[in-house]
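Deliverable D4.2, example record:
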Amino acid sequence: MERRCGRSRLRRSTTGRPGSRTSCEAAVAQSPLAEPTAAPVDRVGIVGLGVMGGAIARNLLRAGVAVIGHDIDQARTDAFAAAGGRRAASAREVAERVEIVLLLLPSSAALDAVTEGPDGLARGVRKGTTVIEMSTLRLHDKEALRGRLEPQGADVLDCPISGTGVQAERGDIIVYASGSEGAIERCRRVLDLVSREVINVGPFGTGSRIKYIANHLVAIHIAAAGEALALARNAGIDPAFAIRVLSAGAGTSRMLEIRGPMMAARKYSPPSMTIRLFQKDLRIITEFAKSCGVPVPILATASQLFAAALDEEFGELDTASVHEASLRAATSPGPPAAT
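Output generated by the structure prediction step:
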């Protein structure tokens, strides 16, 4: 059963039970939707206050939730405190002060750093703690986190996000929640406060598998939008006008609508997701596809365009700057890019 928990309603729909689960197939829980059992949320912890974590923290603060946050970047913690957040000196302190901890981290190395050591999460969790891992990371590393924390009584959920930083700021993201149904229900109100919809996709790890597939499409759609707008520009069509017309027809995509305006203006900062950080996601998706035995030639072509943008020093700009790779490959490129 798939459970969708939006802000204003609950919807139920059923799916058939898969016969068996491989590394690429997750069994979807079949038990009836549980009635909400979560207590009112008054305090939440966040480790990782970057683009996504910072946006989620601000949404919780606006909803009247006390947020305890930690990040190794001083500027991020300063911005968090200025918004009304309460600083913590370490991930351990975050876990010691709350029962629900959200992790929004850029890499597996960062996950390991906040988990281990004298100031790590593993020293602060206890029975009753729920850790919600919301990053896009290798599933192996999330499983390792689960294996490290659950013997200490904590619940660990795999709940990656579909959406950009801009969407996160508006609460317009989707959460692919996977793990213990009871833990998801206890945390659902927190997730509802920061998202448009929470979808319980099944057992632990299913969320990441779905996210890899979603990002497969995102990568292709961003690259396709960049290529299409390069074609429009060199065909003498104003790219902003092209976006408006294309968005009204069958050729539209969320990435054209969200990142197309950045491409039209050729302004890619501040980034919602940098080209450099997105390389990590592309590697994870490619490894996942290989483990599933599925060739992904379209993704491979898109990855080459993102790599070209990285080589051309757009690494710290938004993924929309892949448009520049298509323009530079054209025989009659447009005017110099603005940053």
